[in-house]
Automatic annotation (TrEMBL):
Pfam families: DUF1905. InterPro entries: AF2212/PG0164-like_sf (IPR037079), DUF1905 (IPR015018). It comes from Clavibacter capsici. Gene3D superfamilies: AF2212/PG0164-like. This is DUF1905 domain-containing protein.
Amino acid sequence: MTDDLPLDFTAPLWTWEARRELWTFVSLPVELTPMLRELGQAGRRGFGSVPVRVRVGATTWRTSVFPQGDGTWILPVKRAVRDAQGLEVGDDVHVDLEPLP
């Protein structure tokens, strides 16, 4: 399962419509769902989240990815990262992601 880590993908940056200025995300590829679901169940963290190390451009940080009701997973991208990398909503973001124990 972890032989393929870290993972990398590119996806568009989007906002949660209920709170446009506060919550900005990237959706993870659906192919990662089985692995993340297994990690989420094993770790028993809040909301089934999985802790990760993330790199976008020159910025690296620790956060968690979260499952959604439709079975997909999302990665929050905080303002400091967006500002440091010059990212705007709708931009394609290249993400290096590594699940943490």
